[in-house]
Amino acid sequence: MKLLIDDADIAKIKEIYRYYPIDGVTTNPSILAKSGRQPYDVLAEIRSFIGAEADFHVQVIARTAEGMVEDAHRIVKELGQNTFVKIPSVPEGFRAMQILTSEGIRTTGTAVYTPMQAYLAAKSGASFVAPYINRIDNMGFDGIHVAKEIQDIFRSNGMATQILAASFKNSQQVLELCRYGVGSATVSPDVINSFLKNAAIDAAVDAFVADFEGLTGKGKTMATC
Ligand code: E4P
Q1: Which of 5, 10, 137, 193 is the most interior residue, by most CB within 10 Å?
Q2: Does the pLDDT at position 197 exceed 90?
Q3: Residue having the nearest C-alpha atom to atom 1 of ligand 1
Q4: DSSP strand pairing (83-88 vs 24-26)
């Protein structure tokens, strides 16, 4: 499963990249709004940092299929062909996905709450569909179950579309979908930073260092003892 960062804060993105093997970045209009910067300024900075080959998912704003296609052309022109254009999985969006697919532009069906949306986005040529795990949970349904159902539909029908699971609130949700073999998960920096919040891990490392320093002296390492 690929692991992406769901944020546009370049400082947070750099910090997470420093420690973890990350495959790319996703943004949405609300995330961009939080940055307080002009959209293409922040998006170009992210692209330049993550490199031309990394997965980058950027969302359209227009509400009509024709407008979405225009947004997509600008997104790909500014950020490179290897950018997945996120398109809401609504009727105008399905039309836009079909047009863009015929032009060779890759799309991600977003705002997915139901397996039917995912199925239609896949049929419309989307490379990814993004079910919103936590938001589905908050509606009183089971987001993980919805994502698994989508994965089953794709597998049963031999569809090449992959899941880009989104909107996570904890590490267990991410792991559960990793176990199920979904293609990608996009996760906020806060949740990624919680992956290893475990006192037992820190205590084990501290004990190893203390034992070694007891033998060799304070501050000594395998390089300096
Ligand atoms: C990704 O495609 C979504 O825009 C995003 O993950 C939604 O996350 P949220 O529910 O935490 O806002």
Answers
A1: 5
A2: no
A3: 166
A4: unpaired
